[in-house]
Structures are given as structure tokens and as C-alpha cells.
Amino acid sequence: MPCEVGYMLKINYSLESGVQKSVADISAPAELNIQVRNLVLKARKGQKISRGEIIAEHPSKFGGACHAAASGKAVKVNYHHLTIKCDGGESAVEPVDVQSMGPGKELLRTLQGLGIDVAPLSSRTETLVINGLNSEPGISVSEQLLRDEKEILEAGLRLAETLITPMHTALAVAYGSSFSLHGAQTAYVKPKYPRSLDALTVKAVTGKEYPEDTKILSIMDLYDLGLVAKYGLPVTSTIMTISGKNYRVALGTPIRHLLSELDIKVQSGDKVVLGGPFRGEAVYSLDEGVKKGDYGLFVISADEFPSIEDATCINCGECVLSCPARILPNMISRYAEYERFEMAEKYNLNSCFECGLCSFNCTVRRPILQYIRFAKDQLRTGGV
Ligand code: SF4
Ligand code: SF4
């Protein structure tokens, strides 16, 4: 199968997709491989698990819990992963009537327990921006959901508005599109990457950089919220663009299963990337499972694009010129490379919104974005 998204890497920053078909389901895999690193594991090896049951909780005050997307038995548990051998069993999890709950802590805790990250919902705001742009070139999830799942999205919006009571709600969409959501004023944004990134979408809609009185939710956030509002069941799947079409994929589905279902061949030296062409990360194993928030999968052929190298920076400045956050990716990546994370922070590491343009444009193909993510992760976890 040709790598459509991979081809776009060379030439295309457009966020328009013109997706035509409906979302298709990927069949259930024999095993789920769920990433549990940095989560508090609630399941143990040998345990029978029911579909929808909590298998891990988030250690933070606001992170959503992680649930089994299928029933089965936990056959492998380690620091990074929990593997469930699926048996096709029914769910024993009862739905929760979220819509009848009033705003407040109980609703927040219930949503968190159903897999929703509630940080953006946990306090009031003046303006709520719904980011309806496709996340990256070649990814069409937002457009697909706005076209086909308006009712679910509006249920999610009502729930979000119950909690954060915004004075104004805006839906950011591409110029020329006709998408709308009841209760949201449509704002048009030029559909060119990296304008789909939250910081830039907010700026395009409000005219301000990082305004304190504004929150942003993605269409996927709203969709998960809408599903929880409508069915009262936990989030156990994500929607992913693969070779130009969108698929509903159970969380934990091994990438090997996805490739096999869609008859995508991977040759020696090819890179399989989870996410989009700019922000995605190459997977280290095809047994790796799909995670919440993964919105794309593509294969870059070995001869299609120069691979990232751990090369020395030659001070050409290309990364600085391409950085929309107006920071110094060359300096930050060097400090991260030598584990001087506090210096990376001084060079405004936290202003980076991980667009990936610095890595994409680096003359010697340094893994700048990977260094940045490494530094952020080390600072967040204290190097654990
Ligand atoms: S990923 Fe690179 S280009 Fe993008 S904001 Fe961060 S430092 Fe700047
Ligand atoms: S583009 Fe690459 S080589 Fe050039 S300054 Fe940035 S990190 Fe260094």
C-alpha cells in the first residue's frame, strides 16, 4: 500500500483533507497491549478483567483513568505495559448517568473515573475555544467527526459548558468549511500547519497569546466527552487516520494488528510512526499498543525521507527560523542532549508547543523534538 501521509511529508502543510468515507471499525485483536508507564496500576498478573474495568489510574489530580477495551486475562504486567489476552467476554460495567449530574466535584471525579482528563474542565473560564482544525497534514479526524458526529460533539459541548460556564464559545474551523456546533460561534482559521496547534489556534481566534481567561478543547476531547455523556461508559477507543481513511481503534490494539488488518506492508528500514507527520513518534516495536489521543499511523519508507540522526549541530539557524514559538531549539536540544535540563528550561523549554518544525527543517536531521520531549519528561517525572 502506498504511504500517502508519508508522501505528504515532503511537500504539504495543508490541513484540509476532504475526507469522504465514514469511520470504519478495526476488528478486535487477540491481545491488548496497554501502556501504563507513569500510571498507578490497578490490575495484577493473572487477574480476569472485564471490558470497561479500570486497569490504571492517573497519579495527577486531573488525569483520566485507563480502562480495558476488551474482557480477558492480564497475562503480562511490567513497569511499561499490561497485556490482556482477550476472550470476547461481555462487559460487567454499568453505565453512569452523567447528564443528570449537576456541576461540581462529583461530576468531575465521575468523568475522571470514566477516562476523561478533567484539567481543562476543572475551573471556570471566560472563553472556550473548540479546536476543529485537523491536527496535522494528512490527518482528518476533526473534519470527520464534525461532519458525522455533530450530535455527540454537541452533547460533549453541553457537558463542558456545564462545568466551565464560558461567556463565549468559539469553534475554530478551516476557511471555507461549513461546520458548526450549536451554541458556538464559528471562527475561521487558515488551514495551514502549525495553525492547528492549540496556542496558535487560540491566538487566531482571540488575537491574544496565552490569554488567561481562555480554555481550549480539541474535537477529540469533545467527542470523548460526548460519548461519555451519551452512553455513560468509559473511553476505550480512539479515532485514527491511516492511509487517508479514519478508523475506530480499541485502546491497546497492537500496531502489528492494525497493519495486518489494513494490509500495510513494512519493509526492513521503514519507520512506523504513531501520530502525524510532524509530531508523531516512531514506534520501537510493532507490539506497542495504541494509546488515548493517538490520531494517526503511517509508514515512512526507508528511501523516502532522510532519517533522523544523532548528529552534531552546525549552527545553521534553520530551526530557529522555523520556530513559531520564537525560542531557540538549537540551544534547548543541546542542553537536553547533555542532560542540562535546568538550562533547557532557562531557554524557554516550556514555551515549546511541540510542532516538530525544528526537527523537520534541521539541516543535519537532529532529533530536536525528541530531545525537547525527553527534557520535559525528565523535568516532569524527576528523572524516574
Ligand atoms: S517543536 Fe521546535 S519549532 Fe516547534 S515550538 Fe518547539 S522548539 Fe519551536
Ligand atoms: S537546524 Fe539543526 S543544525 Fe541547524 S542550528 Fe538548528 S539544530 Fe543546529
Automatic annotation (TrEMBL):
<dbReference type="GO" id="GO:0046872">
    <property type="term" value="F:metal ion binding"/>
</dbReference>
<keyword id="KW-0411">Iron-sulfur</keyword>
<feature type="domain" description="4Fe-4S ferredoxin-type">
    <location>
        <begin position="304"/>
        <end position="334"/>
    </location>
</feature>
<dbReference type="InterPro" id="IPR010208">
    <property type="entry name" value="Ion_transpt_RnfC/RsxC"/>
</dbReference>
<dbReference type="GO" id="GO:0051539">
    <property type="term" value="F:4 iron, 4 sulfur cluster binding"/>
</dbReference>
<dbReference type="InterPro" id="IPR037225">
    <property type="entry name" value="Nuo51_FMN-bd_sf"/>
</dbReference>
<dbReference type="GO" id="GO:0016020">
    <property type="term" value="C:membrane"/>
</dbReference>
<keyword id="KW-0408">Iron</keyword>
<dbReference type="GO" id="GO:0009055">
    <property type="term" value="F:electron transfer activity"/>
</dbReference>
<dbReference type="Pfam" id="PF13237">
    <property type="entry name" value="Fer4_10"/>
</dbReference>
<dbReference type="InterPro" id="IPR017900">
    <property type="entry name" value="4Fe4S_Fe_S_CS"/>
</dbReference>
<protein>
    <submittedName>
        <fullName>Putative Electron transport complex protein RnfC</fullName>
    </submittedName>
</protein>
<dbReference type="InterPro" id="IPR017896">
    <property type="entry name" value="4Fe4S_Fe-S-bd"/>
</dbReference>
<keyword id="KW-0479">Metal-binding</keyword>
